[in-house]
Amino acid sequence: MPHPSFEDLFAEHGIKPTANRLLVARALNDSLRPLSLAELEERLLTMDRSSIFRVLSLFRNQHLVHVIEGGSEGVRYELCQSHNHSTDDDQHAHFHCEQCHRTFCLEEVPLPNIHLPEGYEASSVSFIIKGICPDCARTNHPYAHIHTHLA
Questions:
Q1: What span, in angstroms and rounded, lies between the C-alpha atoms of 9 and 30?
Q2: CATH number at residue 101
Q3: Residue 1 domain-assigned?
């Protein structure tokens, strides 16, 4: 994903840019998939866990991250590319591989339109498809070893 102007994105979400906030935003932006708090901690060696969590909490409150719940690894975070702090126009489905336990963004798969019964008000939506990712499917294919020898 190309580097957005984080300062502009922060301003659109009512967030003051600080060094720690920029580090977390860059780490999320540079990742090819949603990251857990532990994965962010591994990538951001100059920040402690509580500082990362505080930044993620602020980002969550200001709708700058998507919070993906439901995979086997707990909560994951991804940078939201929405340009509005009160609504999220960047929602999409996610895929959780039951073999390698990675979670992937499916940006080309929009969320289904769900009509809630009267009186219910949604605050967030999480749509996770579970199964086997293409990498694991190739590895587990019964003839995968033949293809690797022919290549």
A1: 15
A2: 1.10.10.10
A3: no
Q: How many residues does the chain have?
A: 151
* Residue 63 domain boundaries: 6-150
The tally of domains found in the chain comes to 1
Instruction: Kindly provide the b/e burial profile for residues 3-24, where b requires at least 16 CB atoms within 10 angstroms of the residue's own CB.
Output: eeebeebbebbebeeeebbebb
The neighbouring-strand residues paired with 68 are 76
Total-model pTM: 0.67
Task: Give 22-40 pLDDT, tens digit per residue.
Answer: 999 999 999 878 898 999 9
CB 118 within 8 A of CB 129: no
Let me know: does 88 contact 122? Beta carbons within 8 Å: no
Q: Pick from 54, 126, 132: which is nearest to 93 by CA?
A: 126
